[in-house]
Write a structure and sequence with these properties.
- The protein has 338 residues and is an alpha/beta fold.
- It has two domains: 181 residues, Rossmann fold (3-Layer(aba) Sandwich); 85 residues, no CATH class.
- It has eleven helices and twelve strands.
- A hairpin with a 2-residue loop joins strand 4 and strand 5.
- The longest helix has 18 residues.
- The radius of gyration is 21 Å and the shape is globular.
Amino acid sequence: MGNILEVKNLSVSIDTEEGIVEPVRDVSFSLAEGEVLAIVGESGCGKSMLCKSIMKLLPPSARLVAGEILVEGKDIAGLGERAMEKLRGKVFSMVFQDPGRVLNPTMSIGSQIAEAVRIHAPALSEEAVSERVLELLNLVGIEQGRERQRLYPHNFSGGMKQRCVMAIALASDPRVLFADEPTTSLDVTIQAQILDLLSSLQKKLRMATVFVTHDFGVVARVADRAAVMYAGKIVEIGTAEEIFYDPRHPYTWGLLQSLPFFARGKRELPVMPGSPPSLINPPKGDAFACRNPYALAIDYEEAPPFFKVTDTHFAATWLLAPGAPKISFRKGGGFCGS
């Protein structure tokens, strides 16, 4: 199973009135065909910007300053907008957080799905487009598609709107789907339904999927691998099992210990101290050092490289360097404090 997507040392900057923001800093990862990679981290760590950077859906003030974006070995980082338009939909597609902001309130649902179909298959007859719309509605679990395609977004609930957005995203059979926190605006019951639908579609269509979330429960439910992101960088990456059962970066410990599981028998849910750093002037060394009770002197001077834990598991922390103190989250270390 080969890699459909490889990102190498990608960095992005945004010009603002306060200074240059660096939301993505030297990020590298790969994505195999049919694989689900979860990107997890606090709000503002760069997860969504990373996905938009790969699709080159950046604001005018943003730019790729370094790195490669390889699609089946071909670097697309230097492509212009016209060339990228040919890739969006056919290679990449995206499901966003809030379906209410994606759907056009003045167009029927069927018209919006049909528009997506025509963009990538302009030679299709009107009859074929109509059949494809019904097929997509059925694919995402919207029954009575022939009647419901005439309805408008305001006639649908939040979960049904998200299903419609997914139908639009799948209109051209993309090979890579970016799901940017697609369940955030939904209630818990509907979240589970949408996650199960995404998982079912991914397996049925064999799509590679990048799932952006801040919820480790979602990671456990959908992901094959997980990349933990902090201050614009990936700080740990491995299989979902490795990240859950053998985490090595102190930031990953902090995210995991904030799960309700670790609060059983306690009056309060454990939290990480401090807050993420500004990405206008990222701190020297390890950006997590000021929040890390196990930070070493070198953390404040030099950014750690990735250290290999297994063939599939890597973490960027000086705690994995030879001679560093041995601290184990599983044995009660880390932020558990026991």
